[in-house]
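One-letter codes give the sequence; the fold follows as tokens. An example follows:
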Amino acid sequence: MEFATSETPEWFLPTITSILEQKLETPKMTELKFVLSEEAANHNMQLLSRYENSINKFMMANPGSIISPGSEFRPANILEPLLMHHHNWPTIKKILQNGSDWPLYQITNEDRIDKNNEFITRGNHKSAKKYKSEYIKIILSEVNQGWMIPLPLTYINSLHHGELAPVGIDNKVWSELPDGSRKIKFRLTHDQSFEKMKGTSVNSRVITENLNTLVYGGCLTRLINYIVDLRYRHPGIAILGGKSDFKAAYRRVTLHGDIAEKCAIMLDNFSLPSTRLTFGGSPCPYHFCLFSEMTADLANDLLHCPSWDPRLLFSPHADKLPEPVIDSEEEFASAKSLDIMIPPDDMGKIDIFIDDGLAITIDKNDNKFRAVQSLLLAMHILCRPVDHNDPIPREDCLSLSKLAEEGQLAEKFTILGWNINTRTLTISLPDKKFKTWSKDLEQIINKRKVSFSMLESTLGRLNHAATACPIMRYFLGRIRSILTAWDVAKKTKKVERYLSSQVLEDIKLWREDFLPKIHEGLSLNLIAFRRPSFLCWSDACPEGLGGFDHLGYAWRMAIPFEFRKAVAMKNNCLEFIATLITVWQAILMKRATREDCFLSQGDNTSAVGWLHKANIDPDKNLPLFLATRKFAQVLLHSNTCLYSQHIPGISNVVADSLSRKFELNDEDLTYFVHSSPITRVYLH
């Protein structure tokens, strides 16, 4: 088998060496004062007034400063010889030279001022007032690093594009201390979606079709499929994974001056425009994704460059990488065949989810010395190193603390909130998440009611949990519909609503079946894009149900005559139940085994679709929802997975016969199936 190789151009490594050898100018301090004081705010106001009350005009008139676009990266003209052929380079170059500029619909100056005055009167969200001391600490840190410009609050209306947005403080995040204990981590939430006047918030005016494509959303899926493919091709070689993070990722990308004015928050008598990407602006993930993707692609190019020697060309932080760890006691789990073609690649793969850089490779040749190092070097090439002459406090773009904790290549590692074990080929929910989430679900079940914020948080958690078992997303639709229909005016209040019995049943399914299973660990074979290993067909009508599998086993069940009228209008649901029985009996009879992948085929589009999604009212079709819960439990506890496929009715003649021809006994029906010309064609 041929392995994927990259034809590295001759200029690649010399160009990198040239970039690293070029002397960089230290950014200059600006006349702006980054101190949270009335004196500094008034000074900054007077300074900007000389530039027609425009942050952008001030930035353009003072190039090469700490708030100039691209100050956290090497200059565009230095990087261009290396990156000019990358599809994202034109946009990245523009951001490095002019700042992150967002495509927005404009509002009138009158609406802008009215909105600002309304927010000044209203103030920040309650959480920012409740945890004000923490809020002040966060603001002081941001201001001291030049990430926010202190100005008088009333001056916001004089800035050409000045717009306020309220902030809150999230105290639901926990950080782990070295001794294993945890403490609350307070985070600033910049609510750029909040609005009283409809259509005036910054996020509501973003022209999303003008933004670049987000690619990091499929990061975990890509890595899981790559791991399974590696194990399938190398059943007896260890697969290693490690992680490196950008430090304060969004704060590395400077905003265009006009956008900075639109990203202002308030604290007492101060307005604070942000000079860097915010954590509330909807275009921010799209723009930082450009840098994430560039970093990953550069790291992959290094990893696949045969002449790159990490002992000669490396990041200054390479010596901080812990030694790789390989567990040789457990047996290697077997991988199943994928149904997609992944170009064979034994060099390794680098991927990034926002600020988390992830490396996967097999323990072959010197891969374990190259994988994470390629990621560190890529970040070092793109980012401006810390300069002891920097006029304002600044940390390295690489998170050195996380590098020590998570940079170690190992067969057991944590990525994107999941524990991965490549030796056993499993993914599992960490203990702390399992315990916290289970406790919260138990509380909802016992109270039978919930607040909007609690239900919204629960939905986010469960959606994350469904990453390990996509069929779980089936049971999020009813929760999501409640949030969508919730009275907008009462979202921020502590109003609790009683949940319907069916929604509570869904939550019980999560609490009792789903979360324990993914905490225990699910095989990556059940998540990867598998080649089906067990084929089955089914059909139903008001007369009966039936199905069969590729091994030649069949079943059928006649519906008693007195019930046929009751089910006459429920054929879609009957078709779904027929699919369930076909799969279930194959599992019960042990024809289907652990980690089998079912391909269920039927001629009813609704039933086939319902195997993965059902946007209907449970009160109108309760039997369907009872069946779906049972189906999920059957698949989960048998460690199998399911695909579905619609086929034309003419191709489903065997299952049709099983669900209809009850006038024939089993022997006669078998003869009919094998003797009928049309069934002989499809049985072949």
Observations:
- Residues 219-246+291-427 form one domain.
